[in-house]
Amino acid sequence: MQTSVIVHPPPSQPMKNTPNLLILALLFISLLGHAQTPKKPATTVNYGNNAKNGHYFATRGINLYYETYGQGKPLLLIHGNGGSIKDYRYQIPYFAKHYRVIAVDSRAQGKSVDNGPELNYETMADDFDALLTHLKLDSILVIGWSDGGINALLLAMRHPEKVKKLAITGANLRPDTTAVTAEGYQMIAEESAKLRAGTPDAAAKNTLKLLHMMEVEPNISLSDLRKIKCPVLVMGGDFDVIKPRHTLEIFENIPQAYLWIFPESGHGTVHRYRNEFNAKVQHFFTHPYKKPNWIDWEP
């Protein structure tokens, strides 16, 4: 197995959702843990609600919303549970200088409305595959955060010919406390119970779908993980809601992988460590995978 560990030193300190999705939004924010709230970027671009760059793609009963920025090699951005394209507001302007960025609202989130009764990660991964086929793209780079990392792993497993390189942060393989902290898992269960106790409207039912998916999924085996053919940069925070030892487990079972654990960080790596995150992912994308010699002292 070709694997390598990168532990980076601490850096210098540097959505529009419907009201009924407030619980899920607050849950996601609370899971950021030690992530410091950064200042808003100096930009007038309304990522996630930009008519100039926005498009819809009809696939399997829904209209999948996505926005494109920049030119060059294609880069797909997949956000976390209950999020939207806006969650990548610190990444889109950076990577659009180098790539054709394709940022997507996942099924049942953002502008990608899904009125079906259930959700699963495999369906979402296949949504992205269908979008890439529609755009005539067959070799892409991918960044996935949280649930977006799960979707990205599944995309690489189910459609390996589509993914050239993959960078994930805060992803998990299982919906249990071997992967997720007890506090985080309990919070998801409690919020689901509160919503079920009432009489949820359509938007609240959508939130329940998203929460329920986190309660029972994903269920990715280590043997399936080992089938990933592309190089993967596996990341997470040392105080992430996804346990660092689980992030290590993901890293150890991907044949060509690097590991980067963010110090003093919770789940919000793409915000809290945005400059370091962007630079490290860009370096990963632009350099061939090479397993360092364990005794190699030179940079």
From TrEMBL:
Which InterPro entries does the record match to this protein?
AB_hydrolase, AB_hydrolase_1, AB_hydrolase_fold
Ordered alphabetically, the record's keywords are: Hydrolase, Signal
User: Which GO MF terms are attached to this record?
Assistant: hydrolase activity
| SUPFAM superfamilies, sorted | alpha/beta-Hydrolases
By its UniProt entry, which Pfam families does this protein fall under?
Abhydrolase_1
Where does the AB hydrolase-1 domain start and stop, copy by copy? 73-207
The answer to whether keyword Hydrolase applies is yes
| Signal peptide interval | 1-35
Give the superkingdom in one word: Bacteria
Q: What PANTHER family has UniProt attached to this entry? A: AB HYDROLASE-1 DOMAIN-CONTAINING PROTEIN, HYDROLASE, ALPHA/BETA FOLD FAMILY PROTEIN
Q: What is this protein called?
A: Alpha/beta hydrolase fold protein
Origin species, per record, is Runella slithyformis (strain ATCC 29530 / DSM 19594 / LMG 11500 / NCIMB 11436 / LSU 4)
